[in-house]
Amino acid sequence: MNIYKLRFAPSPTGLLHAGNARVAIINWLMASANGGSMLLRIDDTDHARSNQKYIENIHKDLSWLNLNWSNEVRQSNRTHLYDDAAKTLREMGRLYPCYETEEELQYKRRRQLKAGRPPIYDRKSLSLSKLEKSKLEAKGQKPYFRFKLNHTSIEWGDIMRGSSLFEGKLLSDPILIRGDGRYLYHLPSCVDDLELGITHVIRGEDHVANTAIHVQIFQALGGTHPTFGHLPLMTDIKGVGLSKRFGSITLKALRDEGYEPLALIKYLMSLGSDIGKTPIASINELVKNFDVRKIGRTKPKFDLEQLWAENIRFLHTMSSKVAINRLKQMGMDYVTDEFWNSIKQNIKTFEEARFWYDVCFGDITPIIENFNFNKEALQQLPPEPWDKKTWYKWTHSLAAATKLKGRDLFLPLRKAITGQDHGPELSTLLPLIGRKKVILRLQTS
Length: 445
Hints:
This protein has 18 helices and 12 strands. The chain is α/β, with parallel strands linked by helices. The strands form 5 sheets. A 3-stranded parallel β-sheet has the order 1-2-3. The chain has a 3-stranded antiparallel β-sheet with strand order 4-5-8.
């Protein structure tokens, strides 16, 4: 049996956004559903833009989503492998030096497009003699290196797109190595997938043309390419693609704002599929029947309002056991089933529970509107023990004594007891707050 081995391969050049998260989640689910594993590959060959702080954020983001990875590799530590592969391709005549400047290449592209032709590299550098190359290098022109594509049909079976076909002659020979010696995406990615035994590569459909190139690189290096699957790219609500460079909603921002990771996972997986449509208590519940082919071909649109609504639904349907454990981890030691069931319909994030925890078990600043009213409320306050009926008994006797009713009766009490003009039912909060605290708050002047 082929053991599935997938990888999530972010570049540490910015914070991960929701689209990146969706790719990571799908890779993790596919690996887990097939008894395999997901590796984390840090694509940090761009030394100028890569930053350790982004690597640390990648770790935090994946851990927050509960996506464990089996191993981690960094491309910056694997240059020797890419050097060996480049040497092999050079000796085969598949990697060749080129000397055009960026301005010259842009000029060629403009002419081709103006003539109605695709902007494919003309391979002019292949015709340069050794002497011509030496003269260019003597002038300080450093070569960059392209991979020579075979002008044959390139085919593969794509999990998402079905049979895929590209004609090599319609593709431009890709640049593998820049003039400064830095490796671009193609060669390190293929070398790593081969060396690490990656069986499946699931990534965005913006990589489809890259995959055609990679199939030939795998073949040239004597390896078998992984099984590929290309996901439709996520956009924002206006249809604009998500991007690390242009301030799309980041996982760090969602985490800091109090979104629940499982709510985010459910929401992302529900876009374009039936996956995540039903309530879940763990990401592992998505593993059992996961099939990447169930994901639709339509571009999913990320809507922050829909995610917010999903987050609220998630909290409101969470079991007391799970919620209490979470709240205690946040330092709320005295929470009970009664507390959670009282407040859950009035919070949008777990952090908001902290205020109601202080209302019940800590200190708040009461809002006193009528001291004489509060004195009468103290007179009518029932003795303990208290239960859900206490609130109704108290307000009934207070209404008879003050002749007040409705908001005129209830709102001053709510403000004095909770410091808010809205919130959970006081019939459930009152027994949690207790008589001693209620007296102290009503006596505040």
